[in-house]
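Writing this down once: the sequence line spells out the residues, with the fold written below as integer tokens. I am pasting one below:
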Amino acid sequence: MTTKTVKRKPKRRSWLQDWRLYTMLILPVAFYLIFCYKPMVGLVIAFQKYNMFKGMWGSKWIGLENFQFVMKMPDFPIALQNTLWLNFLGLIAGFPVPIVLAIMLNEMKWVGLKKVSQTLLYLPHFLSWIIIGGMVLQIFSPQTGIINALLLKSGLIDKSIPFLTDGPHWQATYTLVGVWQSMGWGTILYLSAITGINMELFEAAKIDGANKMQQIWHVTLPGIRSTIVVLLILNVGQMMNISFDRPYIMGNPQVQDYCDVLSTFVYRAGITNSQFARATAIGMFQSVVGLILISAANFVTKQLGEDGIW
């Protein structure tokens, strides 16, 4: 019996087959290289006595002096503590809310009400913090705020509640406003994850006699567990980062010790005083600690049997 050898045609390289896809990647890759990675070269000024006239390569190298100077400033520990505490409050209060809302929206049977609810929930995410700050002032102001006016008129309280002028009250207001502003955007992510669950699992649960709460607990939540874990890790990694506009707009001198965070501290101690090297040192410190936090959260997640993000 003779066997014939069949000559196979050499396979084309994958990059030649998918050259259109690789061509589409040129623009996003170029964007990240130019606007995200190229500016990282500027981190070198954190280790210099930066002089804008001499430039980045002509300034004197001073090592870690900028980091030491910043960390010895009396306002730095306060700003660091407030950053961690406000982010922790936002994580505890805000992380479960989009999950609950997504499950509630998914269980709605009236399509019209579901669409209206989704629109109302998403809308705050697209509002500027300038607009939200004005709304907060109109609603929570101790003298002219709507809430205090209604409570005083109804006789439920004897004096105005200092939502914006007392430290603990301001932190609670800050946290709740942040939850309201971001919960709709998080709901989108969890709704998309819920729609990816195999509907046959729900049918099987119904056949086994599971009620609605049991279906949510044993089918819906396990189905979106990977999404919850990934978003939790990312949120933990952002514990050192906090936006500038939100605490700057909602804060005031009466709660300075409670609203001063690293972003406002950088603006006040670095940018306004033209101390760009010190401002860069603080930003680098935030990034390094954030990397440590997200790596630790990912490690713990893997130890508990989850996939993590890498």
Notes: Strands lie at 48-49, 60-61. The domain at 65-125+167-303 is CATH 1.10.3720.10 (MetI-like fold).
